[in-house]
Design a protein that fits this description.
Blueprint (H helix, E strand, L loop, with lengths): L2 H7 L1 H28 L4 H4 L7 H4 L2 H10 L17 H30 L5 H21 L7 H8 L3 H24 L3 H18 L3
Length: 208
C-alpha cells in the first residue's frame, strides 16, 4: 500500500512511517558522502550534501515513488572514486557505508524498543518498530548486486577490472532491470536472504 493511501486511511500511521523512511534514506546517502570525505573525496562536502536537511537530498521522482508505491530514493550523493586514496577499499567502504548506517539505525531502534517496551508507550513502540523494519529492508535491498545499488559496487571492490567494467556498463539500464525483476518477484528470495542475515546479525548484538 502506498503512503498516499495510508495518509487518508490513518494519518498518524502515515507520519510514523513517512518520517523514519525519509530520514533513513537521507542518512543512507549521507553515510556515503561522509565516508568518501574521510577517504579523500570531498565532493559531497563541497556540494553541501553532508547535511540532514531533506531539501539537500530529495529527488522529485524518488519522492513521488515513495508516496505512491511506498519505496523511493534520494538524490545519490556524488562520489568521485578516482579521488579516493585507495580505489578498491574506497569502492567497498564508501558503498557499504549506506547499508551499514541502515543496520546501525535498525539496531538502535530494536535496542530502544527492547528497553522501552515495558512502559507500553504505543506510539513510540510503533515508531521504533517501523524504523527498524524500514532500515532492515533498505539495507537488504541495497545489497542486491545490480548497478546502481550498493551491492554492485561492493562486489566491484573484490572483482577484476574487466568484471568492474562489465558491471559499470549495466548501470544505465540497472534501474529498469531492478524494477522489472521486482515486478516479476525474482528479487524477493535474494532480499529475504539478505534480510535474514541482517536480522541474525542484529540479534547477536542485542542484549538478552
Amino acid at each position: 500500500m502506498g503512503l498516499i493511501n495510508l495518509l487518508f486511511k490513518d494519518p498518524v500511521a502515515f507520519v510514523l512511517v513517512a518520517i523514519p523512511l525519509l530520514y533513513s534514506i537521507i542518512i543512507h546517502e549521507l553515510a556515503h558522502g561522509w565516508v568518501a570525505d574521510k577517504m579523500g573525496d570531498s565532493t559531497a562536502r563541497w556540494l553541501g550534501r553532508l547535511s540532514l536537511n531533506p531539501v539537500k537530498h530529495l529527488d522529485p521522482m524518488g519522492t513521488i515513488m515513495l508516496f505512491i508505491f511506498g519505496f523511493g530514493w534520494a538524490k545519490p550523493v556524488p562520489v568521485n572514486f578516482n579521488r579516493l586514496r585507495d580505489f578498491r577499499k574506497g569502492l567497498i567502504f564508501v558503498s557499504a557505508a549506506g547499508v551499514t548506517a541502515n543496520i546501525i539505525l535498525a539496531f538502535i531502534a530494536l535496542f530502544l524498543l527492547q528497553l522501552l517496551s515495558r512502559w507500553h508507550i504505543e506510539s513510540l513502540n510503533t515508531l521504533l518498530f517501523y524504523l527498524a523494519q524500514i532500515n532492515i529492508m533498505l539495507a537488504a535491498f541495497n545489497l542486491i548486486p545490480i548497478p546502481p545499488l550498493d551491492g554492485s559496487k561492493i562486489l566491484m571492490g573484490f572483482s577484476s577490472r574487466s568484471f568492474q567494467y562489465s558491471l559499470a556498463r549495466l548501470e544505465p539500464y540497472g534501474f529498469f532491470i531492478i524494477i522489472g525483476l521486482l515486478w516479476l518477484g525474482a528479487l524477493n528470495p535474494l532480499i529475504a536472504f539478505f534480510r535474514m542475515i541482517i536480522v541474525g546479525f542484529i540479534k547477536l548484538l542485542l542484549p538478552g
